[in-house]
What we know:
Layout: E1 11-13, E2 16-18, E3 25-28, H1 50-61, H2 63-79, H3 91-106
Antiparallel strand pairs: 1-2, 2-3
Bound molecules: zinc ion.
Amino acid sequence: MTDKHTPGPWKPEGTLIWAPDAKANIAQVSELRTDDYVSFTTPSGSSPDFHEIVANARLIAAAPALLEALEETKSALNGVPCSCNDDRGCQRCHAGRKATDAIKAAK
Ligand SMILES: [Zn+2]
C-alpha cells in the first residue's frame, strides 16, 4: 500500500484512463450534464458533451507526465536564481510559485 499515485504513463481510451499494465483502469470520466449530479453516469457517444468528456480523459491521463515535466521545470528554475529584485510582476517567479502550488496539490 502506498500514498503515491500509480506510476505513468497512463493511457486514455475513450472515457477510460488505464494504468500502464492495462490490468486496471485509473478512472472513467462521467457524463458532464445529468439530472442526477450525485451518481456517476457512463457517457455515451451520443452525448452532446462526448468530445469534451474524451478530452477530459486525455487531460487526466496526461497527469503523470505533466507532473514529471513540472517537477523538472521547477528544478531547472531553482538551479538558476532569478535576477529580479522584486518578484511582483516577474513572470518567472510567478511561474515558479504556480509550479510549486500545483506540485503540492498533486501530491
Ligand atoms: Zn523573478
